[in-house]
């Protein structure tokens, strides 16, 4: 029996990835992880918006308008991605001193800047200073492309540092910060691998016939699909990791509740309670009123307590 399956691999992977982003957002909001990782939550929302724009919006808008929207969102995603790295670093190294922060940040930025300068061609200065609309879009594309490259390199560096040194500062294997960073570094490593492979194919492949062109396009599509599958696995890793509480979270909640109950018990008496002096100064007719139940109010209050 032959099944007529009209959906391509690109459509299937897009659907699964978009569904995974929505499930991850539900986990982040429902399990109260968004308060601890607000920038990571914002980055997932931006990824979902980019997926919608790429699949549903670009084909329905004029080409220039759709391109401007897409590269603007891509640049915004790069900025949020850098803030995510800062957020994860602060969560993973809470006890690190000021000098350690300065030295570590400068070292990681130096490596990232070196990779950024050496990897890939840079356009001419006239292209960067041009004022036409097309050249402006090229500058936006360049900023998003180089920013993504820098963010990927920094994510890999941060993943290595947290994996090696995170346990000393309380960010062990089961911590959410380390698991998010592992997912980011894995996705970044896959993206850099595909990027380098495609660049090598473009530099060393000579296309002379239509069959050669189709073969190169097929290899490119397979690499992109493989990268999308890897990102889908990373999304599943984040969903499973963030759904489970960190070790010791229940005990921390219990100790917090006990502290709050102890503070409630140690609170002073209510200000509406009558002091003993006022009770002694009461008239001698008060015992007779107590003995007569018909004169007492039905509900409790300051009069009933005295």
Can you offer a commentary on this structure?
The protein has a single domain (9-244), classed as Rhopdopsin 7-helix transmembrane proteins (Up-down Bundle), CATH 1.20.1070. The protein is 74% helix and 0% strand. It is built from twelve helices and no strands. It has helices at residues 9-30, 38-57, 63-92, 98-118, 125-128, 133-165, 176-204, 210-243, 249-265, 276-280, 286-291, 302-305.
Key phrases:
mainly alpha, 74% helix, disordered C terminus, 306 residues, Rhopdopsin 7-helix transmembrane proteins, 0% strand, 12 helices
Task: Break the fold down into its secondary structure elements and pairings.
Layout: H1 9-30, H2 38-57, H3 63-92, H4 98-118, H5 125-128, H6 133-165, H7 176-204, H8 210-243, H9 249-265, H10 276-280, H11 286-291, H12 302-305
Give the terminus-to-terminus CA distance: 89 Å
What does the radius of gyration come to?
31 Å
Biggest β-sheet: count, sense, barrel?
A: none
> Into how many domains do the coordinates divide?
1
Shape: globular
Structural class computed from helices and strand pairing: mainly alpha
CATH class value: Mainly Alpha
Helix content: over 70%
**Spans with pLDDT under 50 lasting ≥5 residues?**
251-257, 266-306
Brief overview:
This protein is an all-alpha fold and 306 residues long. Helices cover 74% and strands 0% of the residues. The longest helix is centred in the C-terminal third of the chain and has 34 residues.
